[in-house]
Amino acid sequence: MRLRKQELGDRNLIGARVEAARKKKGMKQKELLAQLQVNGVDMNASGLSKLEGQIRYVTDIELVALADILEIPVDVLLGRREK
After folding, report:
1. Within 13 A of 82's CA, how many CA atoms are on the CB side?
2. Distance between CA atoms of residues 29 and 25, nearest Å
3. Cα 9 to Cα 7: distance, rounded to the nearest angstrom
4. In a domain, 31, yes or no
5. How far is Cα 66 from Cα 74, in angstroms, rounded to an integer?
6. Distance between CA atoms of 71 and 25, rounded to whole angstroms?
7. Which residue, among 38, 12, 36, has the nearest Cα to 28 in the 3D structure?
């Protein structure tokens, strides 16, 4: 497992929660990327890494797809409520 080289950014609220939920499901980034593709979201490994590192903005379409794939409500990803 590689450690993050950059500090967490401030461009989204969900990155750290996406990473935690993905890891809790035992899912690798490649698997999440494949699921995003199936759901019509075109993202590459660099984009997902930047999203999780909070150094990339997240679109509403990506937010909904991530919540669906990770099987958690959008409000949980946004930090508005706990699971």
Report:
1. 0
2. 11
3. 6
4. yes
5. 8
6. 10
7. 36
CATH number, domain containing residue 38: 1.10.260.40
* Domain membership flag for residue 5: no
CA gap 54, 48 in Å, rounded: 10
- Give the residue numbers spanning the domain of 64: 15-77
Contact 13, 61 (CB under 8 A): no
pLDDT in tens, the chain (83 residues): 556 567 889 999 999 999 999 999 999 999 999 999 999 999 999 999 999 999 999 999 999 999 999 999 999 999 998 87
Q: Provide the pLDDT for residue 8.
A: 85
Whether 43 maps to a domain, the answer reads yes
Predicted pLDDT at 82? 81
